[in-house]
Amino acid sequence: MSEWLAISLLTFVTGFSMVIGALIAKVEHISNRWLESELRHTVIAFGGGILVSAVSLVLVHEGIKDLTPFLAILCFSAGGVAFMGVDTILSKMHQKASQLVAMVLDFVPEVIALGALYLLDQPYAILLACMIILQNIPEGFIPKGLQKSDFRRRQSTAIRRF
């Protein structure tokens, strides 16, 4: 299999995991409200844990190989500040889609890092892809939350179809 095709397949599968999360989020009325709420919280917390693991075990590990510690910390912090800035701007504009924008802004660097890592170290890239898949499944729950909020129905439908 060519590298281009393998990278394309990995990025497609990682992106499609958000759709899988949206399908899981459609399951309602599991047993009682408490259990349903706890299940959703557990899935989202699991996704957050996987995100921290992916960053600490793969991305930071590979990123600091060629950078000084100061520059690595600076780049890592700049990324966090940039994401926080976008979220702050959206919240000041009273946009309901801040979670959606965060999801998309999170996915683009993930696939860029995945493609670059695949060219450098395929086993690490496959590990990263698995972590991204596990982390993206809870992100698929976002359209469900937007649907329950006062987010416009047409926009929520477009998000679910995406």
Top keywords for this entry?
single chain; mainly alpha; 83% helix
General description of the model:
This protein is mainly α and 162 residues long. It is 83% helix and 0% strand. The protein has seven helices and no strands. The protein has helices at residues 3-25, 33-63, 69-92, 98-120, 122-139, 142-148, 153-161.
So how many helices?
Answer: 7
Low-confidence stretches: none
Tell me the series of helices and strands, N- to C-terminal.
HHHHHHH
Helicity, as a percent range: over 70%
Strand content is under 5%
**How large is the radius of gyration?**
17 Å
> What value does the average pLDDT take?
77
Shape: globular
Termini distance?
28 Å
Oligomer: single chain
**What characterizes the major β-sheet?**
none
Outline the fold blueprint:
Blueprint: H1 3-25, H2 33-63, H3 69-92, H4 98-120, H5 122-139, H6 142-148, H7 153-161
Helix pairs in contact: 1-4, 1-5, 2-5, 3-4, 4-5, 6-7
Offer a quick outline of the entry.
With 162 residues, the chain is an all-alpha fold. The chain has helices at residues 3-25, 33-63, 69-92, 98-120, 122-139, 142-148, 153-161. The chain contains seven helices and no strands.
